[in-house]
Design goal:
Elements (H helix, E strand, L loop, with lengths): L6 H30 L5 H33 L9 H16 L10 E3 L5 E3 L2 H8 L3 H11 L6 E7 L3 E6 L1 H14 L11 E5 L14 H16 L3 E6 L6 H13 L10 H17 L1 H15 L3 H25 L4 E2 L6 H13 L3 E4 L2 E4 L8 E4 L7 H14 L5 E4 L6 H14 L8 E4 L5 E2 L16 H18 L8 H21 L7 E2 L2 H4 L7 H17 L4 H10 L7 H10 L2 H11 L3 H20 L3 E3 L6 E4 L1 H21 L8
Parallel strand pairs: 5-6, 5-11, 6-7, 11-12, 13-14
Antiparallel strand pairs: 1-2, 2-4, 3-4, 8-9, 9-10, 15-16
Helix pairs in contact: 1-2, 3-5, 4-5, 6-20, 6-23, 8-9, 8-10, 9-10, 12-13, 13-14, 15-16, 18-23, 20-22, 20-23, 21-22, 22-23
Length: 660
């Protein structure tokens, strides 16, 4: 069976063999000179010619394979959108290898241009490598760029940059594919299975602002990975096991005698939890009884398991209300799920010689970390570290995850990295086979720059935050008198879109590794890079065809059968902006950063405004309002823009509305 190689592998082989040809030609030249001088070497010359011919034949085969691989996979117009910057880079790779075959791993850097669509920036570093002038190097590379349907113009500029202009015919054809095939992901290779661990509230406690970022970022990250075609397992590692449940059940025995048949509501549960913690810390008799309850719970005694399940059900019901409001989808798999695996986890670590016993505790010193992980406490109980190690092993061995992302706050970094290191030492996790990472985030701050709290200093309940968002968004819509033009159903939909959208967008538009200030006033501002501005921009674009009385069916028919052309510079600028989405998606996927998508959406909206100000889509009589003409090409460009923004909104987990 023949070996199947990726485009990248084929390109590497091509570069190597072109370099071999170059070196052989140098040897041929030496052999020719030797023969002319009368030295022996005729047989050597013939052998070199034969070898050179073979290599050139292999190069031809490799080039044909590369062309076939590219057309087959990366740019499948039905399933994937082309990553323009990648395609242009490949043309320049070929050109550099052809112009300077003696160079190994020559840099090829292409960026978005300032005065052109793209710009090749590697002539200067290559010039240093070959001892030539950058302008001369740039001209040699330009001359070797293969003919292609994407680039219409190449021009050397400044000290050695190469400006790249994209063909307007190509831009038109790609936008038309968006209209006929929809907004599609870029090609990213083989499908992967990804576990995203996010949200993770604690049972018997209400969700608070501290859960906001993990929940929002984890949901959006999952949507991004699903958009590109990965198999995503969304897991909610809730805190649903441990000593705290023994404390709580012991306290309920005294304060809530019906605990075996009914659980207190979530607010009372949280109060009971705080009271039980106070008793546990101050009352030795209560502490002994709490430990007894833990043992009986771990032994699966009916009454204790029943009480535990009731507590979990009440908490789960409250979590679900939050998730439904925020449109979050996640599968609960808490610490209790891994309880039966923990003994085996400890035994496996012991068998590897990784466990040290100190003062009755079993410790694992993870390589590279001075502070050990406690995997068994002196009382025989397991810990978060045991649970996390068991979970990691299960996710790799049973879930068959290729990639695991832990969406957890930055404060847990040392703990999680220690867990990963211990798993590597145990042989469970191989970074060459699995990508495991802590996708950490900063804290939510109040406008005073401190950790976000209520005025009384308490943690902000998430339900209160969402309720305030709903109240403020309705007030904002009424301030704009939208209640006078929208139906009650449309007003409700707009209220929810703005309320929940502004909270999500404010979070996702910031670099997740940094802290950010939570401010409803800034979030609800309809100017700048905010959810209200983006939602208004989207509804405005969607309204253009509606105002022109052009139905969706008519737009679809025009896209499929019409002669779609773009001529005005602002049309082409907007179209080029739309075609950059695959680049944005790839960057977001590689870094697991969502703020780049928000920045891109804002760029699209701003570029659309430039287009709309200069290019009439629908011309009306200024006196009567009668429609005089409709530019269908521009309406189709509006449709492609709206579809692009809708795809981005979907990744961010925000529901746009058609009318607002």
């Amino acid at each position: 069976m023949s070996e199947h190689l990726s485009t990248e592998d084929l390109m590497k082989r091509l570069a190597e063999q072109e370099r071999d040809v170059f070196l052989l030609e140098m040897e041929l030249e030496k052999a020719k000179r030797a023969r002319e001088e009368g030295s022996e070497g005729n047989e050597e010359l013939q052998a070199l010619k034969l070898e050179n011919g073979k290599l050139k034949c292999r190069i031809g085969i490799l080039q044909r394979n590369i062309d076939a691989e590219r057309s087959k996979s990366a740019n499948n117009s039905e399933n994937n959108m082309m990553v323009l910057i990648q395609e242009i880079s490949k043309y320049f790779e070929t050109a550099v290898q052809s112009a300077f075959p003696e160079l190994k791993n020559a840099p090829v850097l292409v960026s978005v241009g300032k005065t052109a669509d793209y710009q090749f920036n590697s002539a200067m570093p290559i010039a240093k490598m070959v001892g030539q002038k950058p302008v001369d190097v740039a001209n040699k590379i330009l001359a070797k760029v293969p003919a292609n349907p994407i680039i219409s113009k190449l021009e050397v500029a400044g000290p050695g940059f190469i400006n790249v202009t994209i063909s307007s015919e190509f831009v038109q054809s790609e936008v038309r594919k968006v209209l006929t095939h929809g907004v599609r992901p870029p090609y990213v290779g083989a499908r992967k299975r990804v576990v995203v661990d996010f949200s993770s509230p604690n049972i018997a406690k209400e969700m608070h602002v501290g859960h906001l970022r993990s929940t929002i970022i984890g949901e959006s990250m999952s949507r991004l990975l699903e958009f590109i075609g990965y198999d995503v397992v969304r897991l909610n590692h809730v805190g649903d096991w441990g000593t705290q449940f023994g404390m709580l059940i012991a306290h309920l025995q005294d304060k809530f005698p019906n605990y075996k048949t009914v659980s207190p509501p979530i607010g009372d549960l949280q109060s009971f939890y705080k009271e039980s913690k106070t008793r546990f810390d101050s009352d030795d008799k209560f502490k002994a009884r709490a430990y007894d309850c833990v043992v009986r719970l771990q032994n699966r005694e009916h009454d204790f398991i029943q009480a535990w399940k009731l507590i979990c059900d009440v908490s789960r019901g409250e979590f679900t209300k939050i998730y439904e409001r925020l449109n979050i989808t996640v599968t609960e798999r808490g610490e209790s799920f891994y309880q039966d695996m923990m003994s085996d986890t400890v035994k496996l670590l012991e068998a590897k010689g990784l466990v040290t016993v100190e003062e009755g505790r079993k410790l694992v010193f993870a390589p590279g970390f001075p502070v050990p992980l406690t995997i068994v406490k002196s009382d025989g109980g397991f810990t978060y570290a045991t649970s996390d190690l068991a979970a990691l092993k299960h996710r790799i061995d049973v879930e068959k995850a290729d990639w695991i992302a832990y969406v957890v706050d930055a404060g847990q970094n040392l703990h999680l990295e220690s867990v990963y290191s211990a798993a590597r030492a145990a042989g469970w996790y191989d970074p060459a086979k699995n990508r495991v990472e802590h996708t950490f985030f900063g804290v939510v701050q109040g406008e005073d720059g401190k950790k976000f709290k209520t005025r009384s200093g308490d943690t902000v309940r998430l339900v209160d935050l969402l309720d305030e968002g709903m109240h403020r968004s309705l007030a904002k819509l009424k301030e704009k008198e939208r209640d006078k033009v929208l139906t009650p159903e449309e007003l409700k939909a707009a209220q929810e879109a703005v309320a929940y959208g502004c909270i999500k967008y404010a979070d996702l538009s910031h670099n997740r590794t940094q802290d950010y200030v939570f401010s409803f006033d800034k979030m609800l501002d309809d100017k700048g890079n905010t959810a209200p501005y983006m939602l208004y921009a989207y509804t405005r674009i969607r309204s253009i065809a509606r105002t022109a009385n052009v139905s969706e069916a008519k737009l679809t028919e025009a896209a499929q059968t019409g002669n779609f052309t773009l001529q005005h510079p602002k049309e082409l600028k907007l179209a080029m902006c739309l075609l950059k989405l695959p680049e944005v998606i790839l960057r977001a996927m590689e870094m697991l950063m969502l703020h780049g998508i928000c920045e891109y959406m804002y760029e699209v909206a701003a570029t659309f405004t430039e287009f709309y100000d200069k290019c009439y889509c629908v011309q009306k009589d200024p006196k009567t309002g009668e429609i005089l003409s409709i530019d269908m090409n521009r309406l189709l460009l509006c449709e492609a823009t709206a579809s692009t923004l809708a795809a981005c909104f979907n990744i961010l987990g925000i529901k746009p509305v058609e009318r607002m």
